[in-house]
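G., the chain you wanted modeled:
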Amino acid sequence: MAKPFLGLPKLLVCCSFGLFLNACSEPEPVDEPTRPVRVATVNFANTMATANYSGEVRVRHEPTLSFQVPGKIAKRLVDVGSVVKPGQLLATLDPPDYLFNEAGAAAQLNAAQAELSQARKDLLHANNLLEKELTSQASVERRQDAVRTAEARAAQAQSALALSARKSAYAELRAETAGVIAAVEADAGQVVEQGQAIFRLARTEEKEVVVNLPENHLKELQSASEIKVSLWAKPGMHYTGRVREISPGVDATIRTFTVKVSILNPDDDVRMGMTATVHVRRPEPRPVARLPLTAITQSGQHPVVWLFDPSTQTVRPQPVTLGGYEDENARILDGVKTGDQVVVAGVHKLLPGEKVRLLEETKP
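Predicted structure as tokens:
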């Protein structure tokens, strides 16, 4: 009788024991790659803070032009936007009435002068008769009174003629100064009263920017050490500015003060209605460090930066006190010191005590 084969069970037991030993052995650790970061060095310094306010370019003087006499507008010679020179004719009134008045005043003056001439001849004749004792002294005195009366009438007629001539000149509306026609209030064929607005003339020799300033920013403006003005249409150009006027009262609706900033050196590029920015620079009240906005993260309700320790190549979070934000930087008031190295790239995935390497040292 054949014996049973006993090697197979032993082989199975040995294989199972080997698999058990392999399952119980620990896996080899896998090295995680060190996270690369970029850092910046903190530097506290007394610097200038800049606040920017948008506004509109306007002219300081914008007088209303009107006729000094009533009448019907015969011609309007300029339109909105027309550039005018001193003495340029802008509009005229229908002139016949004023010409008739001037002609009548001239006729009255001629009559008064003729009367004066006759009175003087009568006085000369009376003086000749008095020398020959052919008339009385009283008669000569009457002739003298007549001459004085005629002289007064002639002077009155002369004044009346000058006034009529002036009124005729008033029928022409001319620009007193150079400028740009900002508005037209009346047109040809319209009957206007004395002093009624016909044009608004923007005088371009003085230009300014009008901004609406929040009431809590007035102190910044008043303590400014430098004010510059830039145009949206000419971003590379800057003009020196000076605060000319701050409205005494605040707007009841939007709670802002109207501030007028004069442009001290305007050129032809500065035009009415342009959008402008007023840059107000003032000394910081305390030393400030500026860090890129990417360095700031949030822990709860507090802003935090990540400090890099060069000796251990690790990072840790550090709460900071912010002094506000600029276009690309955050202003740091407290929490770090000069010389600290702060992570400025990759802050959102860091862990306290995590080992990192500088991005400049990262191998490709």
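The domain at 96-170 is CATH 1.10.287 (Helix Hairpins).

Shout if anything looks off.
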